[in-house]
Design a protein that fits this description.
alpha/beta; Rossmann fold; 2 domains; 13 helices; globular
Length: 462
């Protein structure tokens, strides 16, 4: 079978309804925003701004942060599954511990949502055998065209349509693309091609969903009423299976960080987070935090006022941090080991990277920061870099490098404890030595549990 067909209706409705996770989970409706609230939408053509404004005001789309929509960001199939399952109000069996798909582990956050889709007949998986779901996989433009056209009940029309003569579109998708172009659901790229194999972005999804909304239900039977079982997509043989997506915390009280404000420092100017920072940003948002970005060049004590947590991001230029935040009464997580050492929380700062690591060893298994983990745990699926610190004796060493207890990977300081100079610490302070650029596709569930525990402990939960 051709390379499509996983959750047709799932993707249609998702493209019509990309909601933030906290909102999708049934929390209180956030304040109504408009297109003017997002800095990356202000330069769009007026006709596009009007479409975005209608979608945003109607609660169909929301931003990735308070002031950033995330035009060029992508969403993975695991996230699609959760939103679609909630939109359809599908029965979700929280007691499930075994997935129908081999690439979704028992602790993967999306397990119950994916199983809900499968039970409803909205997905049979990604590979030809239906054994894998590919939770971290993206959706190409030609796949999006097919999902929308099929979800609108126009599959037979696509089969009869004159196929596009576009080398960027695979043969199986040419009819779907032709009809999507004819219906103005999708448009060609600036270079005149459709760009069939390019990954669909949130901008593409938003504009396509606006057009699809005008067609949805017009003379069609509601596809949600009698969903047809889908056939699995086939995976390109040369493509290696993608690693599990960054999991959402499965056993965390989602309200524990709700309303808490976190400031994350970043090296780039402007308003956008770097790609390697987004996994941690998304994770914090999934815990309920309101995330604000600050260029590291603008970091001052005054800039941290009003925030419940500060994260020194991995891209932060350490020369702008130094000892600047040592005495502030705001919890801090350093994802930058150099800055952790510069601020006198570690006796080392430079050359603290450890290469080709897979596991870490939990030292303080009875502490909340350990997230219930014990012994050696897998941190990365494939070997990658970790950063370490050597803290004072007052610190809580939660995890250290496997086989080297002197190199602490996750470190916590309680308020009032002493740093390496014997100075009292003003607020809970931590170092998280995971490499942010590897976290999205390479971090295990255990690694994310350690990060969740760090963020929640920092603000006093538990």
């Amino acid at each position: 079978m051709k390379k499509i067909v996983t959750t047709l209706l799932c993707f249609l409705l998702l493209s019509l309804t990309v909601l933030p996770f906290a909102f999708a989970a049934g929390e209180q409706t956030p304040a109504v925003k408009t297109v003017d609230d997002f800095t990356d939408l202000k330069d769009l053509p007026q006709d596009q701004k009007s479409k975005f404004d209608e979608l945003i005001r109607g609660g169909v789309f929301s931003g990735l942060t308070d002031n950033t929509f995330g035009l060029n960001d992508k969403m993975d199939r695991a996230q699609f599954a959760k939103v679609a399952a909630l939109i359809f109000s599908l029965p979700i069996d929280k007691t499930l511990t075994v997935s129908s798909f081999s690439d979704i582990g028992s602790d993967h956050w999306s397990l119950t949502y994916v199983e809900a889709l499968k039970k409803a007949g909205l997905t049979n998986g990604y590979d030809a055998e239906g054994k894998m779901y590919n939770p971290s996989g993206s959706v190409s433009r030609q796949e999006l065209a097919a999902f929308l056209i099929r979800g609108l009940g126009l599959d037979q029309d696509a089969q009869k349509a004159a196929p596009v003569t576009d080398s960027t579109v695979d043969d199986w998708a040419k009819g779907y693309v032709a009809l999507a172009l004819e219906k103005n659901i999708l448009t060609k790229l600036d270079n005149g091609t459709f760009g069939g194999k390019e990954a669909a972005t949130r901008k593409m999804l938003a504009l396509a969903s606006f057009e699809a909304k005008k067609l949805f239900g017009v003379g069609k039977t509601d596809p949600a009423a009698t969903p047809e079982p889908t056939k699995p997509e086939t995976q390109t043989p040369a493509t290696q299976p993608e690693k599990p997506a960054a999991p959402e915390p499965a056993k965390v009280d989602k309200g524990s960080a709700k309303g808490k404000k976190v400031l994350i420092t970043s090296d780039l100017n402007g308003t956008q987070f770097r790609e390697d920072e987004k996994p941690l940003v998304n994770r914090l948002q999934s815990l309920g935090f309101e995330v604000t970005r600050l260029a590291s060049t603008k970091l001052t004590v005054e800039a941290t006022e009003g925030f419940d947590l500060i994260v020194i991001g991995s891209s932060t230029n350490s020369k702008y941090v130094k000892k600047k935040l040592k005495g502030i009464p705001v919890p801090i997580i350093y994802n930058k080991s150099i800055s952790f050492g510069d601020a006198d929380f570690s006796t080392v700062s430079e050359n603290t990277g450890i290469k080709k690591q897979t596991n870490v060893t939990i030292k303080s298994s009875d502490h909340p920061l350990a997230a219930g983990l014990k012994g050696d745990v897998q941190f990365y699926y494939e070997a990658g870099d970790l950063s370490y610190g050597i803290p004072s004796s007052d610190a809580i060493v939660v995890a250290h490098a496997a086989g080297d207890p002197e190199k602490a990977i996750v470190i916590g300081y309680e308020k009032g404890s002493k740093n390496v100079l014997g100075e009292a610490i003003a607020a809970r302070t931590l170092m998280f030595g995971g490499n942010a650029s590897l976290m999205k596709d390479n971090a295990t569930d255990e690694a994310w549990k350690l990060f969740d525990a760090a963020a929640l402990w920092a603000i006093g939960q538990p």
